[in-house]
Specification:
- It is a single chain.
- The chain has a single domain, classed as Vaccinia Virus protein VP39 (Rossmann fold, 3-Layer(aba) Sandwich).
- It is built from seven helices and eight strands.
- A six-stranded mixed sheet has the order 1-4-5-7-6-8, sandwiched between helices.
- Strand 4, helix 5 and strand 5 form a beta-alpha-beta unit.
């Protein structure tokens, strides 16, 4: 498979962005339940905000079947995320969401967000290697990585590689709009979280379900799932 040139401005605010950012907001809120300082690193951060009326976003229109469906009367599980989207003006990228929720840190606790563009066909392998390296250096940190689901095999291989890597305490949350059988189409996405905060497995599934209810197209194979990949 050849490498592709990915520019997020064409895809900002689509269903995958909404899923990723809603889970990111939950993770940040959960880590802020304790009053101790928090460090956040976004390894593949793009710009802080996107004009959804600009030519790049207008060309694809993906946001119209994504965040546009959430802005009016959002489900209770998504009110926090949607409120931030409204208050920050331009559609916020992950750096803007993190900055809006954080105080200056003296880091001991941390959230590392890994969101590669998946331009390189070897990206899943690089992602596994990066997770292992980061976890070995900082095994108590929370690592959250977004990944695409076009067809099942690459995502399954990635999760299997993480299972065999030695990393502990790993959960995967996934949202699919349709059966993931077309490798040329983004059919779903996932967030793999190492050291998930307390109650992640109880509180994130309703966020995914509310997202699917508003963003889904009622196609065969649409589903949400949360699975423990490796025990603590």
């Amino acid at each position: 498979m050849a490498a592709v040139n990915y520019r997020h401005a064409f895809h900002a605010g689509n269903f995958a962005d909404c899923m990723k950012h809603a889970v990111l907001v939950w993770l940040l809120r959960a880590l802020q339940r304790k009053p101790t300082p928090l460090f956040v690193l976004d390894t593949h951060a793009g710009v802080g905000g996107y004009d959804l009326e600009a030519s790049s976003a207008a060309r694809t229109g993906e946001w119209r079947s994504g965040v546009a469906r959430l802005l009016d009367n959002p489900p209770p599980q998504l009110v926090d995320y949607v409120g931030l989207v409204r208050s920050l003006g331009l559609y916020p990228g992950s750096p803007a969401l993190a900055r809006a929720l954080l105080l200056p840190p003296r880091e001991r606790r941390s959230l590392v967000l890994i969101d590669p563009p998946f331009e390189d066909p070897r990206e899943f392998s690089h992602l596994t290697e990066g997770l292992v390296a980061g976890w070995r250096r900082f095994p108590i940190g929370v690592f959250a990585t977004w990944y695409p689901i076009k067809h099942r095999a690459p995502a399954r291989q990635f999760l299997a590689a993480v299972q065999q890597s030695g990393i502990r305490d790993v959960v995967a949350a996934e949202l699919c709009l349709r059966e993931p059988v077309d490798p040329a189409r983004l059919n779903g996405c996932g967030m793999l979280v190492v050291n998930p905060p307390y109650r992640f497995e109880q509180e994130v599934p309703p966020i995914l379900a509310a997202s699917l209810e508003r963003l889904g197209e009622r196609e065969p194979g649409e589903a949400v799932a949360i699975r423990r990949i490796v025990d603590a």
